[in-house]
Automatic annotation (TrEMBL):
Keywords: Aminotransferase, Mitochondrion, Transferase, Transit peptide
Function of the protein: The glycine cleavage system catalyzes the degradation of glycine.
Organism per entry: Acyrthosiphon pisum
Record carries keyword Transferase: yes
Pfam families: GCV_T, GCV_T_C
Designated name of the protein: Aminomethyltransferase
Subunit and partners: The glycine cleavage system is composed of four proteins: P, T, L and H.
Length: 406
């Protein structure tokens, strides 16, 4: 586990913070003053001061991302380079992706799994670059945990004579921006060098480009919103100038943690610490698609014994989408779920919010597998009242990724 356990859930109108004292150990990204100058409301999150919102409401920021383009500061995430001749084999020791068969310039969503329990320690994006290293982005809330786990596993791996090394990129030196929304490609194309054609860069493709005159920026077509977009890794001493260039565009606005959470929930994406944790397996979380057929057949990925048994026997609970039938306050994380027939407890909500896109309250949670079928009616308890909910297919909002034509 990490030195502190992140257990914060962003809600639509307020941010619930972990029961932890934040003092001088709270860090600031290199865009901290930039956020304040642009009206960002700063809150402690995952060991950093981060903007939860700006002058616009979270709903307005959310809808602007869906319709045009928003810029997010995600520099609190952990960026890592994995070097060495056996770097791909090392990563396959600790995550579920078939890294060796990942194409050059391709990225994949992957998972760190507890080998003993089969639980998800973190989710991550792993990229096979065209250089002599792999590039990885992991969650801010798991940063210390991940760094310690990676270092420990590397020591074991190297003790067998393998060649691999880790380079953790400090946010003071390397920042990360996310440009998200249907206008993101047009905006970014106007700031990259002429040799970079973003129309040839598809969802989960990654390359290096000169951005706003800054060479060797890593540009990956991915994001947490369900919209087309890019994550851009840039030197921290140039990040403010790049961010200012983006937000000077009429169709680009700044967005914070609040909009990020409502967007990712509409997209049916998990937030670590809320929707997935070390007590959750990929089978339960509906994330088995992250494990390729080759790796499943080999049965050598972390947690394989537990996961394969659960696949064979069936998971006792499953992650589902929930739509709130009644109007009123949204059901939030922690609400208990019940069977409408006999009132038996069948699960709990992990996160919930009003959906600005759908104009209705939505949620995500875990229920006994018997009740996981789409259309099943259940109830959530809020302040002693039973709120009718319906199990529904995710994502709630169809993704708008820029995918290669089939």
């Amino acid at each position: 586990m990490s030195l502190f356990k992140l257990n914060c859930k962003l809600t639509f109108f307020k941010l619930r913070l972990p029961a932890r004292s934040y003092g001088s150990d709270v860090r600031k990204t290199k865009l901290h003053e930039f956020h304040i100058r642009h009206g960002g409301k700063m809150v402690p999150f995952a060991g950093y001061m981060m903007p939860v919102k700006y002058a616009d409401s979270i709903a307005s920021s959310h809808l602007h991302t869906r319709r045009q383009c928003s810029l997010f500061d995600v520099s609190h995430m952990l960026q890592t380079k994995i070097h060495g001749k056996h770097r791909e084999q090392f990563m396959e020791q600790i995550c579920v992706t078939d890294v060796q068969n990942l194409g050059t310039g391709k990225s994949a969503l992957s998972l760190f799994i507890d080998d003993r329990t089969g639980g998800i320690l973190d989710d991550l994006i792993i990229t096979k670059t065209d250089g002599d290293f792999l590039y990885m982005v992991t969650n801010a809330g798991c940063k210390e945990q991940d760094m310690r786990m990676l270092t420990e596993q590397l020591s074991i791996f190297k003790s067998s004579g393998h060649d691999a090394s880790l380079e953790f990129l400090d946010s003071d030196e390397q920042s990360l921006l996310a440009l998200q929304g249907p206008r993101s490609a047009a905006v970014l194309q106007s700031f990259v060098d002429g040799s970079t054609d973003l129309s040839a860069l598809y969802f989960m493709d990654s390359t290096t480009a000169t951005v706003c005159g800054v060479p060797d920026c890593r540009v990956t077509r991915c994001g947490y919103t369900g919209e087309d977009g890019f994550e851009i890794s840039v030197p921290s001493d140039r990040v403010e100038a790049i961010a200012e260039s983006f937000v000077a565009q009429d169709d680009v606005k700044l967005a914070g943690l609040g909009a990020r959470d409502t967007l990712r929930l509409e997209a049916g994406m998990c937030l670590h610490g809320a929707d997935i944790s070390s007590e959750t397996t990929p089978v339960e979380a509906a994330l088995m698609w992250t494990i390729s057929r080759k790796r499943r057949d080999e049965c050598r990925y972390p947690g394989a014994t537990v996961i394969l048994k659960q696949l064979g026997d069936g998971a006792q609970r499953k992650r589902v989408g929930l739509v709130q039938k009644a109007h009123g306050a949204p059901v939030r994380g922690g609400a208990v779920l019940f069977n409408v027939v006999d009132g038996a407890k069948i699960g709990s909500v992990t996160s919930g919010c009003p959906s600005p896109t759908l104009s209705q309250n939505i949620a995500m949670g875990y229920v006994d597998s018997t009740f996981s079928k789409n259309g099943t009616e259940i109830q959530a308890e809020v302040r002693g009242q039973k709120i009718p909910m319906v199990v529904t297919k995710m994502p709630f909002v169809k993704p708008n990724y820029y995918s290669k034509p089939k």
